[in-house]
Amino acid sequence: xxxxxxxxxxxxxxxxxxxxxxxxxxxxxxxxxxxxxxxxxxxxxxxxxxxxxxxxxxxxxxxxxxxxxxxxxxxxxxxxxxxxxxxxxxxxxxxxxxxxxxxxxxxxxxxxxxxxxxxxxxxxxxxxxxxxxxxxxxxxxxxxxxxxxxxxxxxxxxxxxxxxxxxxxxxxxxxxxxxxxxxxxxxxxxxxxxxxxxxxxxxxxxxxxxxxxxxxxxxxxxxxxxxxxxxxxxxxxxxxxxxxxxxxxxxxxxxxxxxxxxxxxxxxxxxxx
Amino acid sequence: xxxxxxxxxxxxxxxxxxxxxxxxxxxxxxxxxxxxxxxxxxxxxxxxxxxxxxxxxxxxxxxxxxxxxxxxxxxxxxxxxxxxxxxxxxxxxxxxxxxxxxxxxxxxxxxxxxxxxxxxxxxxxxxxxxxxxxxxxxxxxxxxxxxxxxxxxxxxxxxxxxxxxxxxxxxxxxxxxxxxxxxxxxxxxxxxxxxxxxxxxxxxxxxxxxxxxxxxxxxxxxxxxxxxxxxxxxxxxxxxxxxxxxxxxxxxxxxxxxxxxxxxxxxxxxxxxxxxxxxxxxxxxxxxxxxxxxxxxxxxxxxxxxxxxxxxxxxxxxxxxxxxxxxxxxxxxxxxx
Lengths: 273, 337
Ligand SMILES: Nc1ncnc2c1ncn2[C@@H]1O[C@H](COP(=O)(O)OP(=O)(O)OP(=O)(O)O)[C@@H](O)[C@H]1O
Ligand SMILES: [Mg+2]
What we know:
With about 270 residues, chain A is mostly helical.
């Protein structure tokens, strides 16, 4: 119930024009820049496995920004802009569910952007997907697990956001940015310095993106050799395991932050920026 | 734990840790100290105090938004700190002077959404929304986006949100702050009607308008610097100051009636006379209000006409001055200094 209401808010507030700009124009122009850079660096070698790797990784990464950052932004929005967070808090609802609901809403709006980005790639930007070979079951299962996982990660950030009265909007963005680098979104983890690779291996987003790519274009092992030795099922297992782990941590952290925010009186704090 | 108590606090305290811009300026601010209050079900209870007295802080603690740093508080039978999930379904809260709400949703949608958080059946919610909007005179704005409302109307919408869920205990923090005279009157009238309709409903409001506390509340707690200085019915609070009834009377020339004659009457305790162009102005202090009739009788015997008569009662402002030693306005300006 609470989740569904969160969805209502999220789906209703969008101004159609801003919505178009943020969820369509921005991701497509981002993708186009990526394609052009790729073209220059590889001198137009769009047949390499690296190309769909990059393109799809980037496209699906939109979900991270939408869902994960969206959940933590909900706290900022409700507290600072709408000034409704305190009223949500004193209502008899389970706040994490409400926030997760807002995440699901962002997933649906984000899907439009992802879909359009991939369609644009197929039509104009030399991306090739053989639809006869797509593993739809794997794709859908992965997508669903991924949404839940991202929303739960968002909850963790939302908790932290709750206890911070300044620069809170920054937390979601910064984490999304960091994950972009450490999840193998546009380049394999093997490119990263050795010490930083474990961060990527520990992030469920890494396995999630890999599975999405595999389900659509088959094995892109050349591009991502690190996980080449694992089967789809093994990766799905890792993804599920890490999602459950992160989910549990998120809920625990959120609870702790919630209590802390009540102690500090931060639930209705506005910074007036 | 008595089931009849809506609110109960025991040695309730709240200290804010202030983080200064420099580390060494870390200070503590005592916002509430040793607050002991009990509010019965069915009461309209007022918290009266100057800016910074701790009224909002107390409401935040009672509505589970803020943890107390000492003591405890129970609302609708449950502890606000350890059992917020039991308190929340039974309460609601509205802060005046701020405009909250999802701007792109209409008034009806905003309200409906909050009613759903409390599990009000959708049909009933819509009926209540219509009835409440009607009562505050903004039914015609039901389908307006809340971002297109004036600040005052948005505040009214917010007040409706508080009543909509039919809470057992409703908290209103300065409900009429920023509203014009007419709208404030509507809100006050509405508050009284709401309480009358169901005797188990309880309402706690904060204000720094003396008149509001006086006219509206069954009982008032006067609060300053985080402490409750007095708590009683408005009339009892005022009675403490002054047992006598005060009257100002304008009359035609006194025809030989003088101060001594007045003071010889057993019911007159004080009398002051000032001659005016048209007659005299008397300031009388009587043992009780009903004694006035006999004084008027005396005037009639002497053929003195009463041109105007007014009762001057001690106000809650007088009570505040008596308790704190200066007026609320002075207290507020010293706070900012
Ligand atoms: N979050 C906070 N952090 C630190 N100090 C605070 C915080 N909130 C309130 N205070 C301080 O606590 C004291 C009591 O504030 P409170 O808001 O409860 O007063 P109030 O009686 O509601 O005043 P007003 O009439 O201005 O609304 C004030 O000195 C205020 O500066
Ligand atoms: Mg206040």
